[in-house]
Design brief:
Elements lengths: L2 E9 L5 E10 L4 E5 L6 H9 L6 E5 L4 E4 L11 H4 L3 H11 L5 H7 L5 H11 L16 H15 L3 E5 L7 H13 L3 E5 L3 H4 L4 E6 L2 E6 L2 H53 L4 H39 L20 E8 L2 E6 L13 E5 L5 E6 L8
Parallel strand pairs: 3-7, 3-8, 5-6, 6-7
Antiparallel strand pairs: 1-2, 1-4, 8-9, 10-13, 11-12
């Protein structure tokens, strides 16, 4: 096994449960896409698998030699490329030895990796980062450059397991194709979070994270979507059948209650006509009330069971109803002015002024920077489509 997840849960500091009681086993060499709705905890789960974050409960068994490409790189801005790639200690030892410092600790640190510097530079070059020195700080590099530096680390370290969080976000077409080929070729275990459908279809298995836990699908992303559509169709049909059964159960309960009430009234009138003593009439009334109570309890139990089953089905269905918008409901005549904006802009307060010289602006002074170079003036009318890009 490469990864074993047992009864894993994560709870935010505000006590909100992100996910709970997750179980999953990933075999060595498996290539899996981790999918799920935004905010369901995919990146958090990956960080727990890497060991960067501790779970609230449960355990993770992970391979020793794994490599992680995060979605964001801001935490590495104060590091050099060598430090971000995790090889700065080897480079320091190598340079010390080459300078004549032959102490044992340097040889132990280097661990016979004499060409580490050449391998690192070759890996960077292969990702289009020719000429960038390993001593360069990460700060100031673009998102695409930072991504390619970490992807180059996969070839440099040759890990047994690779975890990638949105690796194609900043890559151009050539970079994406190189990543696809690398994933196809590698024998390492691969776990990927991505919205890139082409990348997801390179992976032969999907693991979906939802409120129901982790669900494994043997097949690529297109297969997974078809299976999800079939499952949701079946669940929708089940829900409609339960709703129909619930309406019928409530109708039957009302009709039985009405019939029983009428029977009780008729029985009481007949008892009076027949001259039945009041004490016996009271006993008959109690029996009728007990019978009605038992019937009511049976119907209540049935409706509660149906409602519980419906709740279970609804929890497995996507909440698409919250996203529906009826654009045809306003019935406004064509051309009616809906919004008029003149000279609109936005600025961030306390934004440091990097353009002013120290003589012009003290180091404590800040200036507001406008979001748009020129204020916006526009008007929208009904029945007109607007695209913002």
């Amino acid at each position: 096994m490469s990864f074993i997840i047992k009864d894993l849960s994560y709870i935010h500091a505000d006590k909100e449960i992100l996910f709970s009681h997750l179980h999953l086993s990933i075999n060595s060499g498996d290539k899996i896409a981790l999918t799920g709705n935004n905010g369901c905890g995919k990146s958090t789960l990956m960080r727990i698998l890497v060991g960067d974050l501790s779970p609230s409960s449960g355990t993770v068994l992970r391979p020793e030699h794994l490599y992680y490409v995060p979605q964001h790189f801001g935490q590495y801005d104060r590091q050099t490329i060598a430090q971000a790639l995790g090889i700065s200690h080897k480079l320091s030892a190598l340079h010390a030895i080459l300078s004549g410092d032959a102490t044992e600790k340097h040889f132990n640190t280097l661990n016979d990796d004499w060409n580490v510097e050449e391998r690192a530079q070759t890996s960077l070059d292969s990702w289009g980062l020719d000429g960038i020195p390993l001593s360069r700080p990460m700060e100031g590099l673009s998102g695409g450059e930072k991504t390619r530096i970490f992807l180059a680390g996969m070839e440099l370290h040759n890990p047994t397991a690779i975890l990638l969080d949105e690796p194609t976000n900043y890559l151009d077409a050539d970079g994406r194709e190189r990543l696809y080929n690398l994933i196809r070729r590698t024998s390492a275990t691969v776990l990927v979070i991505s919205h890139d459908r082409t990348l997801l279809n390179q992976l032969p298995a999907i693991c979906e994270l939802s409120s129901q836990g982790l669900t494994y699908y043997s097949g690529n992303y297109d297969f997974y979507k078809k299976q999800k559509a079939l499952q949701q169709k079946a669940l929708t049909q089940q829900l409609e059948e339960k709703q129909k059964a619930l309406r019928l159960a409530r109708k039957v309960a009302r009709e039985v209650e009405e019939r029983k009430s009428k029977q009780n009234v008729r029985g009481e009138k007949n008892s009076i006509k027949k001259g039945i003593p009041r004490i016996m009439m009271g006993a008959l009334k109690n029996n009728a009330e007990n019978s009605s109570s038992r019937l009511s309890s049976i119907h209540t139990e049935k409706t509660e069971k149906l409602q519980a089953e419906m709740s279970g089905i609804k929890s497995s269905l996507p909440q698409t109803d919250k996203l529906k918008t009826d654009f045809n409901a306003s019935h406004l005549h064509t051309g009616k002015i809906l919004v008029t904006a003149r000279d609109v802009n936005f600025h961030y307060p306390n934004y440091p002024n990097h353009t002013a010289s120290p003589a012009e602006t003290p180091h404590t002074e800040t200036t507001a920077k406008s979001l748009w170079a020129s204020p916006l003036t526009f008007q929208t009318r009904s029945s007109i489509s607007v695209q913002i890009f």
